Amino acid sequence: MKVIEHLRKAKGTLLSFEILPPLKGKDIRSIYEGIDPLLEFKPSFINVTYHREEVIYKERGQGLLQKIRVRKRPGTVGICAMIKAKYNIDTVPHLICGGFTKEDTEDALIELNFLGIDNVLALRGDAIKSETNFIPEREGHAHAEDLVRQIAGLNKGKYLHDEEQEAAPTDLCIGAACYPEKHAEALNLSTDIAYLRRKVDAGAEYLVTQMFYDNAKYFRFVELCRTEGINVPIIPGLKPLTTMKHIAFIPKTFGIDLPEAFAKELVKCRNDEDVKALGVEWSIAQTKELIAKGAPCVHYYTMGKSSAVRSIVSEAF
Fold first, then answer.
1. Taking each helix axis from N to C terminus, what angle separates 272-292 and 244-254, rounded to the nearest 10 degrees?
2. What is the pLDDT of residues 35-51, one digit of tens each?
3. Could you tell me the domains of the chain?
4. Is residue 282 within 8 Å of residue 211, measured between CB atoms?
5. Residue 231: Cβ within 10 Å count
6. pLDDT tens string 171-202
7. From residue 302, how far is each of 119, 263, 307, 316 by CA, in Å?
8. What is the mean predicted confidence (pLDDT) over 87-110?
9. Fewer CB atoms near the end CB (10 Å): N or C, the chain?
10. Total Cβ atoms within 10 A of residue 185
11. What φ, ψ does residue 294 adopt, rounded to 5°?
């Protein structure tokens, strides 16, 4: 079932979560370990992220460089197919602009459609470590809006080459990302929402927010979107803080603020256990308020670790 159908049929707030493909060398059991503890809560769908390969270049003399892969995760499409087959749960593979040509994108969409995976989350993706700014692939997309437009076109049977014979349209539900505190590269929240409107106009049927820790910012963001004519469902995304490293890493990496009351308690933490306990408590409170105020779904970024999310969901749902 498509995500938008889940949302339309829901009689209350739905639950979903996101997992990471394991690093190379790990087997499928690492995926099961992240999903199994959450099955009793009946998630409506599971997102599977996509990560570009990471490479380094080693000098080999005479001006020659050797490209070496140092980080590679298994295929998102295969993991989605496995989850759907094993658990009979709808999956949402992430599809990004970075590292893909338009031809690559079309091939991936055809494969998803063939496998009966009828959802996709369209993202631009981040710059790789060797890039100061995001650089699109040659003959690829520079913006998520363009990726959304290609997917929507394929849903209408519009392929890249008119010579394509006996080509049926795909039937994919398109999701996109949004940022209650604005995208890091946006001039301000107002301009970010203007670009978001373009993604929705291009074909995005629902939106999922970046993680946030202040519900007031989410509710205000939804109000601003509605004022600007963005009327698709906006799903809040939550990520509980669970380690000391998260305290500095998450605000810096994702460009988000921690509420003063939360920050005051975090600075008192002395170890990971303290942070996890506080992070779970804070996310429980966030979840309960989001449910009480009618959020269409609460989406959890598990990062492949389900224990904290399990504690939150068992208390809040």
1. 50
2. 999 999 999 999 999 87
3. 3-316 (3.20.20.220)
4. no
5. 9
6. 999 999 999 999 988 999 999 999 999 999 99
7. 20, 21, 9, 16
8. 94
9. N
10. 12
11. 85, 30
What's the pTM?
Answer: 0.92
Nearest to 18 by CA among 50, 41, 47: 47
* HEC string for 185-230: CCCCHHHHHHHHHHHHHHCCCEEEEEECCCHHHHHHHHHHHHHCCC
From residue 121, alpha-carbon distances to 2, 117, 152, 161 in Å are 12, 12, 12, 24
Under 8 Å between Cβ of 30 and 22: yes
Determine the length of the chain.
317
> Do the beta carbons of residue 140 and residue 132 sit within 8 Å?
no
Q: List pLDDT tens digits, range 253-308.
A: 898 999 999 999 999 999 999 999 999 999 999 999 999 999 999 999 998 789 99
Collapsing DSSP to helix, strand or coil, 248 comes out as helix
Asked whether residue 57 carries a pLDDT value surpassing 70, the answer given is no
Whether residue 91 is predicted with pLDDT greater than 60 in this model: the reply is: yes
Q: How far, CA to CA in Å, does 294 sit from each of 7, 10, 13, 77? A: 12, 11, 7, 32
Q: Return the half-sphere exposure (C-beta side, CA atoms, 13 A cut-off) of residue 6.
A: 25
| pLDDT 10s digits, 150-161 | 999 999 999 998
* Exposure on the CB side of residue 177, measured as CA atoms within 13 A: 21
Residue written as token pair 């913006």: 143
